[in-house]
Amino acid sequence: MTALCIGLTGGIGSGKSTVAALLVELGAVLVDTDAIAHALTAPGGAALPALQQTFGDDIVAADGAMDRARMRALAFADAGARRRLEAVLHPMIGAEAERRAALALTQPVVFDVPLLSAGSAWRRRADRLLVVDCGEATQVQRVMQRSGWSAAQVRSVIAQQLPRAERRALADAVIHNDGLSSAALHTAVQTLWRHWTGLPRAG
Question: What's the rounded Cα separation, in Å, for the pair 50 and 93?
């Protein structure tokens, strides 16, 4: 039996990570592509030599990890730099994600992919796509509270992401996470889990 593969995406500050954690509670195996990317670019990470070759030694911070603030600024300011970054990271992320998914055997797998789009290999890989959505004002408020970024910085990131309407158009299901209580969000996730898997809550 092949495991059900659920693609999970949403804009920054949408609550996607919270939904991912709830799905894990219900019995899913989470494959977090952002966490994989962080591991690949941490001190000693497998992607660092190629990144240094592509962008120069300045891309490595004093602690030996990729300088994420510098790389973010480059990628947001220059589409060519973003494509070069993706050319290095995406194949490595994909290979590690598939390795982790294979370990799940028959358990449902959730691929948490922040930048999933219509042409993405992740969309083709997923049997079902869940989008976590909320208004831009909510996104800005949440990210400012948790990160200390300015509103302008948050909106700059939102502008680089897929527009909300396009994300929703790709979805098999959308959770509208504006003003939901923790209990209501949990209920929404559990209802969808049962519908897609036929499985009760784990444990």
Answer: 14
pLDDT mean across residues, the chain? 91
- Three-state DSSP state, 104: coil
Q: Quick one: tokens of 198?
A: 């036929």
CA distance 121 to 100: 16
* Identity at 58, one-letter amino acid code: D
Would you give the DSSP letter of residue 2?
P
Residues, the chain, total? 203
Give CA–CA dist 56/49, Å, rounded. Answer: 10
DSSP3 helix / strand / coil % (the chain, rounded to 5): 55, 15, 30
Percent above pLDDT 90 for the chain: 72
- Count how many Cα atoms sit within 13 Å of the Cα of residue 8 in the half-sphere of its side chain: 31
Amino acid 203: pLDDT: 45
Q: How many CB atoms lie within 10 A of CB 111?
A: 25
Q: Which of 69, 17, 60 is nearest to 42 (CA)?
A: 60
Q: What is the DSSP string of 49-73?
A: HHHHHHH-GGGB-TTSSB-HHHHHH
User: Which DSSP string corresponds to 112-165?
Assistant: E-TT--TT-HHHHH-SEEEEEE--HHHHHHHHHHHH---HHHHHHHHHHSPPHH
